[in-house]
Structures are given as C-alpha cells and as structure tokens.
Amino acid sequence: MSAVIAAVPTQSTPPIHAPAQRGPRTPAATLEPLWVRVSLLVVAFAFLTLFLFVPLIAVFYEGLRKGWDVYVASITEDDAWSAIKLTLLTAAIAVPLNLVFGVAAAWSIAKFEFRGKQILLTLIDLPFSVSPVISGLIYVLLFGLQGYFGPWLREHDIKILFAVPGIVLATVFVTFPFVARELIPLMQSQGSEEEEAALVLGASGWKTFWHVTLPNIKWGLLYGVILCNARAMGEFGAVSVVSGHIRGETNTIPLQVEILYNEFNIVGAFAVASLLASLALVTLAIKSFIEWRLHQQLSAQSATNQPHQE
C-alpha cells in the first residue's frame, strides 16, 4: 500500500520538465543597423560591377562590335587557331600531370607521417609565392643556350625553350598546387578509418584507392582539376618568358591577344580574349556546382560521424 501511495505524484511536487532547447543566439556585435548593411551591400555590388561585370561585358562587346562575321574570322584566322590548338595541347599535358602529382602528394600528406612533411607542404605552395615571370626565368637559366643544360641540349638537338616542352614545363610549375591544395584538407578531414578497414578486410592498396578513397574525393578532385585547367589556359607570365613569341608556333591564347592588341587589331584581340572569358564563365558555373556537391558530401559525412561520436 505504501508503495502505491509513493508512486502516485502529489500536487505539492510538480513534474520536472527538461529545460527548453534554445537555438544559437546571434551575437549582438553582428546586429548592425539596416543602413550599415545596405551601405556594405551597395559598396560590394558597386565594386563587382565596376571591376568585374563592366570589363566582362566590354570584352564581348568589343569582340562583336563589327559583326558576327568579323568575330568568327578573327577566331578562325591561322595564327589564332594555332594559338588555340597550342593552348589546348598544353592544358591536355599539364592537367593530367598535375592530377597525378596532386593525388600522390595529398595521399602522402594526409595519410602518412614522415620527415620533411612540412617541407613538402611549403614546396607545394611555392608557385603561389613566386612570380610566374621568375619561374620562367628559372627555366631560361636551366635550358637556355647559356644555361646549365644548354650546351648538352644543343649537342643532342633537343629544344626546350621557345618550343612546346618549355611551355608545358612552365605551365606545370605554375599550376601544380591547385589539385593538391584542394585534396589535402578534404582527405585530412575524412581520416583513414575507411582505408584501414578495407585493408583489414583484405583489399589491396590499388582496390582501396579505387573503391574507397576515390569516391570520397571525386568532387574535390574535379574541383581542383577545373581550377588547374583554367589557370593552365590563361597563364601569361611564365609562358611569355619561355615561348619566344613565335607567331603560329609558340603563341598561346593570352600571348596572341597581346600581339593583336599591340598591332592595334582591337576587334581581333577582344574576339580571341572572349574565348578566355567564356572559359572563365564555364569554369565559374562548374565550380559553383562542385562546391554545392562538395558541401553536400561533407554535410553527409558529418551527419554520419556524429552518431558514432555520441
């Protein structure tokens, strides 16, 4: 009887409720007045309009100013077409090389601990801190006629400078950080638990990479490849030093634009430049899509890992 009475709640002891869950409160420092927020937005959009949208519109306007026929003729002209083919060839060689290097470097840095790891990270960032013109001059010092390997190359009739190999080497140097720098933080955040589980279950290293690692990094990998390709096609400084500016042979699209502009062929210069502008717009669209998919992937991974942590 006493047990039954003890189980019945009395009016003097109200039931205990769990404290209400409150969402995160916005810090008071971010609650700016309306006129401050509007002013900041106006300044930002004015800056974008003046330095981004107006020049972009001007490129297509100047290229099409004399009509579609002149525009097409400027792009399909022999020297312009040669520059387009050389640019595509350079990107087709440089991007796969950087893809292999980026995956290998990211795998090594994210999955292993070794001496010189910080040095490797510093070397990957080197093209970001060195002017492309300086990198081009380094290749001149190495492979020029008066360079370290110049006499040997001349004796064996091998051309590096003022030829396609020099352009490819300079492009590879200025673009190799892009793939690695996109993959390193992504692979570090994912950890190595899935790879270790696959190896314990008997999978080989190659199968682990193809069936475990690659599906997890595919969007980050594609993001780095897109940025690498855009930089490879638009590189000017390093390529300008090693190309020799030989019309119809060693001019890429940016160099062809410079030559046409210096010859006062304004319509032709802007017509060829519009190809790079179109590439930039396509790259921006693909980049936005990949960022969205990458954000979804990271959100799904964090949601999956949260129950295990709890």
Task: Give the gist of this structure.
With about 300 residues, this protein is mostly helical. Helices cover about 75% and strands about 0% of the residues.
Could you please describe the fold and organization of this structure?
- It is a single chain.
- With 310 residues, this protein is an all-alpha fold.
- Helices cover 75% and strands 0% of the residues.
- The protein contains 15 helices and no strands.
- It has helices spanning 2-7, 34-63, 68-76, 78-111, 117-124, 126-129, 132-143, 150-155, 164-175, 177-190, 193-200, 205-234, 237-243, 253-262, 266-309.
- The longest helix has 44 residues, at 266-309.
- The radius of gyration is 28 Å and the shape is globular.
- It starts with a helix and ends with a helix.
- The relative contact order is 0.12.
- Determine the fraction of residues in helical runs and give it as a percent range: over 70%
| SSE run | HHHHHHHHHHHHHHH
Q: What is the number of beta strands?
A: 0
Sheet bearing the most strands, described?
A: none
Span between termini: 42 Å
Q: Identify low-pLDDT runs.
A: 1-20
Strand residues, percent: under 5%
Structural class: mainly alpha
> What's the gyration radius in Å?
28 Å
Compute the number of helices: 15
Whole-number average pLDDT?
83
**Gross morphology:** globular
